[in-house]
Automatic annotation (TrEMBL):
GO terms for molecular function: fatty-acyl-CoA binding; flavin adenine dinucleotide binding; glutaryl-CoA dehydrogenase activity. Its EC number is 1.3.8.6. InterPro entries: Acyl-CoA_DH_CS, Acyl-CoA_Oxase/DH_mid-dom, Acyl-CoA_Oxase/DH_mid-dom_sf, AcylCo_DH-like_C, AcylCo_DH/oxidase_C, AcylCoA_DH/ox_N, AcylCoA_DH/ox_N_sf, AcylCoA_DH/oxidase_NM_dom_sf. It catalyses: glutaryl-CoA + oxidized [electron-transfer flavoprotein] + 2 H(+) = (2E)-butenoyl-CoA + reduced [electron-transfer flavoprotein] + CO2. Pathway: Amino-acid metabolism; tryptophan metabolism; Amino-acid metabolism; lysine degradation. PROSITE patterns: ACYL_COA_DH_1. This is glutaryl-CoA dehydrogenase (ETF). It comes from Cryobacterium psychrophilum. Residues 239-385 form the Acyl-CoA dehydrogenase/oxidase C-terminal domain. GO terms for biological process: fatty acid beta-oxidation using acyl-CoA dehydrogenase; fatty-acyl-CoA biosynthetic process. Keywords: FAD, Flavoprotein, Oxidoreductase, Transit peptide. Gene3D superfamilies: Acyl-CoA dehydrogenase/oxidase, N-terminal domain, Butyryl-CoA Dehydrogenase, subunit A, domain 2, Butyryl-CoA Dehydrogenase, subunit A, domain 3. Pfam families: Acyl-CoA_dh_1, Acyl-CoA_dh_M, Acyl-CoA_dh_N.
Length: 392
C-alpha cells in the first residue's frame, strides 16, 4: 500500500464543503481526480528528470483550466473561487503544474484579455484556451526582479514599427511558447507587446540545474532588435499598472495553490505516521507527532478559509491589492513551514522522492520568491496600514 492510497481529507476540520456550491465542489473534484490519475503516479519521475509533462496540456485544456476565469473568446468563464479550487488541487500534485496554468491563464492570457484590442483577443485567446497556443510573460530581468520600474528592455519606434532589445529571466514556459507578452520601457513609459516567439532576433535559453520547480520550464528571453508591427502593442496597458494587474491575478491563484502543497504534505506525513511503528507503536500515537499534525491542520484550515474569502471578494468585485498581498504572504509562508515540518515526521525517508513534502518545500522556495517576495508583500501591507511607503 502506498501513501497515496491512504490519502483522505483529514486536514479538513471545519467541513469546508458546507461553504462551497455544488458547482464548485464538482469542479474541485474533477481536478482532484485528474491530479490523482495523471500527476501523482508520475510526478517523482518528472521532478527527478526536470521534465514538464507537455502531454498533459490538452487534458488540462479539456478540463477548462486554461484562462478558466476569463469569459468569451473560447475561455471557460468560471468563477474566481472555482479557479482557486483548481489551483489548490493542481498544486497538491506539484507547484510546477499549477504554475503552468497560472502563466498561461493569469499572466499571458490575462494580459491580452485585460489590455488587448478586440482583434488581438480574437486572434490569440481561443487557441490559448484550447492549449494549442502557449504563452509566456516577459517582465522579470536579470537585474530587476522586485523593481520592474528599472527594467532595461527598451522598445523604440521606427516608422510604424516597434524595435525591441533586452533580456528577460525566470520566464515560465519560454521554450514551448508560441507567443510572449514582453514588457519594455519606451519613451512613453512601460508598454506591453505581443511577440511571436519565432520572430527574427528572439532567442530562448532554458535555465537548468534547478533545485526547485524541476517539473516546470523556466527560461531566459533575449531580444535583439526584434521588429514588430504597430499591431503588436497592447493598446490598453500603459505604465506598470499593466503588468501589475496581471501579477495580481497570479498572486491570487498562489494564495489558493500553496494550500494544496501544504495539504498534500500533511496527508503524506499523516499516512506515514500511521504505518511507521517505532518503539512498538504507530508514530501517530506519540504526543509530539500529534502536536505537529494538529499545528499543520490548523494552519491549512486558516489558510484555505482566507483564500476562500479572497475568492468571494474577487467574485464580488471587491478584492483589493493589499488583500491579495496578505493571501500570498501568509499562505505561502505557512505552506513552506508545513512542508518542512511534515518532512520531519518522515525522518530520513523524507528526503527521497517516495514522499512529497521535501519536493513541495523545495518548490515553495520558488513560489515564495516569484510574484513578489515576502519582503515586497510585507511593504505593500505596511504601506496600507501606515499610509507611508517604505519601498525606498
Amino acid at each position: 500500500m502506498s501513501e497515496n492510497d491512504l490519502i483522505t481529507d483529514n486536514s479538513d476540520l471545519i467541513e469546508l464543503d458546507f461553504l462551497l456550491t455544488p458547482d464548485e465542489i464538482a469542479l474541485r473534484d474533477s481536478v482532484r481526480s485528474f491530479v490523482d490519475a495523471e500527476i501523482r503516479p508520475n510526478i517523482a519521475g518528472w521532478f527527478e528528470k526536470a521534465q514538464f509533462p507537455v502531454e498533459l496540456i490538452p487534458e488540462m485544456a479539456k478540463l477548462g483550466l486554461l484562462g478558466m476565469h476569463l469569459t468569451g473568446y473560447g475561455c471557460p468563464g468560471k468563477s474566481s473561487v472555482q479557479y482557486g479550487l483548481a489551483a489548490l488541487e493542481l498544486e497538491a500534485g506539484d507547484s510546477g503544474l499549477r504554475t503552468f496554468v497560472s502563466v498561461q491563464g493569469s499572466l499571458a492570457m490575462a494580459a491580452i484579455y485585460k489590455h488587448g484590442s478586440e482583434e488581438q483577443k480574437s486572434e490569440w485567446l481561443p487557441g490559448m484556451a484550447a492549449g494549442t497556443t502557449i504563452g509566456c510573460f516577459g517582465l522579470t530581468e536579470p537585474d530587476s526582479g522586485s523593481d520592474p520600474a528599472s527594467m532595461k528592455t527598451f522598445a523604440r519606434r521606427d516608422g510604424d514599427d516597434w524595435v525591441i532589445s533586452g533580456h528577460k529571466r525566470w520566464i515560465g514556459l519560454g521554450t514551448i511558447a508560441q507567443v510572449a507578452i514582453v514588457w519594455a520601457m519606451t519613451d512613453e513609459g512601460v508598454r506591453g507587446f505581443i511577440v511571436p516567439t519565432n520572430a527574427r532576433g528572439f532567442e530562448v535559453q532554458l535555465i537548468e540545474q534547478k533545485l526547485s520547480m524541476r517539473a516546470s520550464i523556466q527560461t531566459e528571453l533575449i531580444l535583439s532588435d526584434v521588429r514588430l508591427p504597430s499591431t503588436a502593442l497592447l493598446p490598453k496597458a500603459t505604465g506598470l499598472r499593466g503588468p501589475f494587474e496581471c501579477l495580481n491575478e497570479a498572486r491570487y491563484g498562489i494564495a489558493w495553490g500553496v494550500m494544496g502543497a501544504a495539504r498534500d504534505s500533511f496527508e503524506s506525513a499523516l499516512a506515514y505516521s500511521k504505518t511507521r511503528t517505532p518503539f512498538d507503536r504507530p508514530l501517530a500515537g506519540f504526543q509530539l507527532t500529534q502536536q505537529k499534525l494538529v499545528d499543520m491542520a490548523v494552519e491549512i484550515n486558516k489558510g484555505t478559509l482566507l483564500a476562500l474569502h479572497l475568492g468571494r471578494l474577487k467574485d464580488a468585485g471587491r478584492l483589493q491589492p493589499h488583500q491579495i498581498s496578505l493571501g500570498k504572504l501568509s499562505n505561502t509562508r505557512e505552506a513552506i513551514k508545513i512542508a518542512r515540518e511534515a518532512r520531519t515526521i518522515l525522518g530520513g525517508n523524507g528526503i527521497t522522492l517516495d514522499h512529497s513534502p521535501l519536493r513541495h518545500a523545495n518548490n515553495l522556495e520558488s513560489v515564495r520568491t516569484y510574484e513578489g517576495t515576502d519582503e515586497i508583500h510585507t511593504l505593500v501591507l505596511g504601506q496600507h496600514i501606515t499610509g507611508i511607503s517604505a519601498f525606498r
